[in-house]
Prior knowledge:
This protein is of the alpha/beta class.
Amino acid sequence: MEHVEHTFEPVFDCDSRILILGSFPSVKSREGNFYYHHPQNRFWKVLGRLLNEPLPATVDEKRKMLLSRHIAVWDVIESCDIQGSSDSSIRNVVPADLTMILKRAPVKQIYANGETAYKLYRKYCEESAGMPAVRLPSTSPANAAWSLERLTQAWSVILENLIAGA
């Protein structure tokens, strides 16, 4: 176990309509200094399919896709003790202050990428955020039971709040 701080900022602007929360960055994401950096994580593939966008390759392309589509991304945890990338090993949580985004952007819905993010949000952030989160299946490679097609279908609920605000 090591104590790890979240080292990169949330992605959002004053037009963000939804907020997608992970639990805490994986080792690969921490190395790449951006969200869902592991090549086997299907987050970017799912979003690309849902938004009819080409798969973004660079951090700048990923950031541009999120912001142009009014999507904010952050994690529930600011720092914690963790072993590698294992969500099940997370201890001594310091939650992120989500109000930084929620006070500056018209977020209509919060989505949790996976069960761990959902449980941590409910425990540490829901009360201060003032809205429930919708739990989505994890895009992590550890969630191999879910095919890309099945994930994309489940994640299509995010479009409701993006289209409604268009």
